[in-house]
Structure formats: structure tokens, C-alpha cells
């Protein structure tokens, strides 16, 4: 398989696709295309029918398929490795719901706290709309941890006990919270502990190291200088 991604530093959707691929345990090659360059669209267009990243390519010739949406990529990989979703049907349904909420929502957070791993934007971006979305994320994390993640027999540090697609969907949110210093002043103790766990997950650390090593800049994404 090949996974087509954008910048490690800026591309939150690429991060989700990459984390899902890493969590699947399946072999894949990463193809990185810097975003917002004159030839970016041409390069991405060779792989992705939508012209966007991430895009997962599997197979060759007539059997080749392209999957050009991060949640669809995660679902496809879960078909190959079902452990990417919780085993319990009720927990799995809630995990899909919270993943879909992230996939389609939190537009204020995305607008005012764009992912920029290399920056320190402490104090920026806290509009009333963003604070309301942070409160919703806090409530969601608490609910998942208390109802599923902390309960036997699957108790563990993640939303549903074991690392899953639900955690992967919120990992770029944790990147934003690190950049914009969203912590104890805005999150409950339970959510703060979960945030710390995500930030130190080995796969998340791999992504952060790659982002720190990049030199490509996108001025439009450097919202606060």
C-alpha cells in the first residue's frame, strides 16, 4: 500500500490517515507531497481522484483502488485489522459516532486553531465558539473514558480502553491543544490526563518528530506569526 500525505506540520487529515495505517500493523509506503506549492495539485492528482490528501492506494493494475478520505481509509484498514475499532458492538457504535463528529464538526477550532506543530501559539484562537467546542470535546472525552475506557475487561488509557480509530481522529486536536496551550485552564483533569497520553503515544511522537524536522513553510497556515 501507498499512503499519500501532505505536510507533517500542517496536515491534520494526513496525520489521521497515517496514524491509522501505523496502527493497522500493515506494511505501507508514505509518499509526501508538500502542500500549497505551484505543482501540488498535479502531484496529488496522480494519486487522489479528489485532489486531496490523505489518499491510500492499495493493489496494482485493474485491482488498484484509491481511498481519498481519512475516515474511509481508517474503515478500510479496520476491515483488514478489526482491532482498530472496539470489539464490543455498543462501544464500537459510540466510537464511530465520536469519530464522525470529529470528521464533520468543530469548524471553529479548525479555523482559529489550525494545526501547526512547530509553533507556540499559547493564548491565541480562543474565540467563544472555539471555547464552546473545546468544552464539547472535553465532555466527549470524559464520557468515553468513564463509560468505556476505564471499565473492565478493556480498561486502558484510551477513549475505549485500547488505542483505536476514535483516538486517532482526535490526535490532531491534541496537537492543536499542545500548540495553543489548552490545558488545565480549559480541560477537566480526566481530559488533561488523556491529552497527555495521546501526546506521548509512540506513533504520535513519530509524527511530531517528522513535523519538527520539516523546513517547508506555508505562510497562510502560520495564523499568528
UniProtKB/TrEMBL annotation:
Q: CDD domains annotated for this entry?
A: GST_C_3, GST_N_1
PANTHER family hit by this protein? MALEYLACETOACETATE ISOMERASE
| SUPFAM superfamilies, sorted | GST C-terminal domain-like, Thioredoxin-like
Alphabetical list of Pfam families matching this protein: GST_N_2 (PF13409)
* Organism, as annotated: Uliginosibacterium silvisoli
Q: What is this protein called?
A: Glutathione S-transferase family protein
Occurrences of domain GST N-terminal (ranges): 1-85
Amino acid at each position: 500500500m501507498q499512503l499519500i500525505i501532505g505536510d507533517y506540520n500542517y496536515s491534520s487529515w494526513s496525520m489521521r490517515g497515517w496514524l491509522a495505517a501505523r496502527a493497522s500493523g500493515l506494511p505501507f509506503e508514505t509518499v509526501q507531497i508538500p502542500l500549497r506549492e505551484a505543482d501540488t495539485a498535479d502531484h496529488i492528482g496522480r494519486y487522489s481522484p479528489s485532489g486531496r490528501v490523505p489518499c491510500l492506494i492499495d493493489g496494482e493494475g485493474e485491482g488498484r483502488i484509491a481511498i481519498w478520505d481519512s475516515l474511509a481509509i481508517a474503515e478500510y484498514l479496520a476491515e483488514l485489522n478489526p482491532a482498530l475499532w472496539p470489539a464490543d458492538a455498543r462501544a464500537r457504535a459510540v466510537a464511530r459516532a465520536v469519530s464522525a463528529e470529529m470528521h464533520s464538526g468543530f469548524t471553529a477550532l479548525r479555523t482559529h486553531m489550525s494545526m501547526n506543530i512547530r509553533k507556540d501559539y499559547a493564548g491565541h484562537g480562543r474565540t467563544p465558539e472555539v471555547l464552546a467546542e473545546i468544552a464539547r470535546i472535553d465532555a466527549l472525552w470524559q464520557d468515553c473514558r468513564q463509560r468505556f475506557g476505564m471499565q473492565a475487561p478493556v480498561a486502558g488509557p484510551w477513549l475505549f480502553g485500547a488505542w483505536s480509530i476514535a483516538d486517532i481522529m482526535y490526535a490532531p486536536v491534541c496537537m492543536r491543544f499542545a500548540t495553543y496551550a489548552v490545558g488545565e485552564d480549559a480541560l477537566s483533569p480526566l481530559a488533561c490526563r488523556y491529552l497527555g497520553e495521546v501526546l506521548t503515544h509512540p506513533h504520535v511522537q513519530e509524527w511530531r518528530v517528522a513535523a519538527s524536522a520539516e523546513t517547508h513553510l506555508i505562510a497562510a497556515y502560520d495564523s499568528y506569526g
